[in-house]
Amino acid sequence: MSLARQRATSLASWALWSLRVGIESVGLVWLVVVLATIAVSKAASSLNAAAILSAGDALHTGTALWSLGFGGTITLSSEDDGVLSLPLLGLTLVQAGWTWFCVRRAHPSRPAAGAAIVVAATVVAVLACLTGPAGLDTWPAVIGIALLTGAVVAVHLLRAGHGWPPLNRWWDRRPHWLGPSLSLAYGATRALSLLSLLVVVVAVFAGVGRVSVLHDSLARNGFVAVAGLILLQAGWVPTMVIWACSWLIGAGFSVGTGTVFAPDRVVAGPVPRLPLLGLLPSTPLSSVGLWLPLVVTAGAMVAAWRRRAVLNALRMRYALSAAGLAALLVAGGVGLLCLVASGSVGPDRMTTVGPLVLYTVILVFVEVGVGLASMAVLAHPYARTWARNTLPESVLPTAYRRHDAREGAVGEEVDERDGEA
């Protein structure tokens, strides 16, 4: 087979696999959302004549809901200019996981093949948005799909060793403390995620009664409609986890202009009748709320302690540099998630919903940075050596105390025993 024919065959294989990945990763998720919307509308119309939607209207609504997971918006009413733009991050996570599965099965071996997959997914997203309502409300989802697919493809190529050559050369010349910094950032992120999930679990136990009352007031159109309502709320569960993280940090979040939900302060107001909002705290934690952010610092210290071997291999200034960069990365990531978890759920005062982004970023950097830096210093061999040579033994832990005197006494006993022998 000639070289030109081999290249043509390889190019055709790229195109076919890229088209398949684009249709599978984007088209199937869109189809599932649209079919679920049609099923819910038909089930609701059989019990309530006022809820009847034509097949075309159900298709438009399903596409609008699908776009809500990737940056799109939904116009609630033309009379009051109400807009729903709070992202369905649960749908975003499902799309990311399914795209990862499809890309891994395609095995792209070079950046050009990955770029072809991104182009195919973007084209399928454009075709999906053509089925949405009139206007530009759903078209930001095209950009969201392109960015999400590009991120998944890039991570897959890097993990497989087929990354961009200039990026690989830069990574080979990276500072030696950058790897420990990324490890610290990963550990701190895991600790913060677990603490945020714990806050959500506690909120579920505290607000399950309010959630049940709100759910019963809306679930009156049969089993399919109830299942659709549950799935819709499940799409906002990751959003609530990010709100819980902002609450745990101490910055808090708002559900409407003029409202604040923080550990030490709660200023509530009227909210939509969404059952998931029944988890909102009704009262502050009084003085306990002022000390709650210390839990985040303790979690960061635990994450640094688990990676103390990596930090101890660095000099003190490099260990502090790794801790500072890790705190900056975590703060930047949390800030990006707070922006994603913000939006609008209606007109007027309900246009401001989500975490207090700037305040959250500052507090995350301070709380996580203090925890990582303090453990990087306290667990470092230089700090232990300084403590042995400077502080009196009476105030030192047993592991830090000098053993010269005890070892000398033991040596004298051994000499005496040898002399007697």
Using brief descriptors, characterize the structure shown.
68% helix, mainly alpha, two-stranded antiparallel sheet, 5% strand, 421 residues, 16 helices
List the helices and strands and how they pair.
Layout: H1 3-47, H2 55-67, E1 74-77, E2 82-84, H3 89-106, H4 111-129, H5 140-159, H6 165-172, H7 178-218, H8 222-234, H9 237-249, E3 253-255, E4 260-262, E5 265-267, H10 288-291, H11 294-306, H12 308-312, H13 316-340, E6 353-355, H14 357-378, H15 381-390, H16 404-420
Antiparallel strand pairs: 1-2, 3-6, 4-5
What does this 3D model show about the protein?
This protein is mainly α and 421 residues long. Helix content is 68%, strand content 5%. It is built from 16 helices and six strands. Helix 1 (3-47) packs antiparallel against helix 3 (89-106). The longest helix has 45 residues, at 3-47. The chain is flat and about 80 Å long.
TL;DR?
The protein is mainly alpha-helical. The protein is built from 16 helices and six strands. It is flat, with a radius of gyration of 28 Å.
Query: What is the H/E string?
Result: HHEEHHHHHHHEEEHHHHEHHH
User: How many beta-strand segments?
Assistant: 6
- Mean pLDDT comes to 80
**Gap from first CA to last CA:** 89 Å
Discrete helix count: 16
What oligomerization state is this entry in?
Answer: single chain
- Strand order, main sheet: write it out: 1-2
Instruction: Summarize the amount of helix as a percent range.
Output: 55-70%
Instruction: Give the C-alpha Rg.
Output: 28 Å
Main sheet characteristics: 2 strands, antiparallel
Low-pLDDT stretches are 404-419
Outline type: flat
What percent strand?
under 5%
Assign the structural class, choosing from mainly alpha, mainly beta, alpha/beta, alpha+beta, or little secondary structure. Answer: mainly alpha
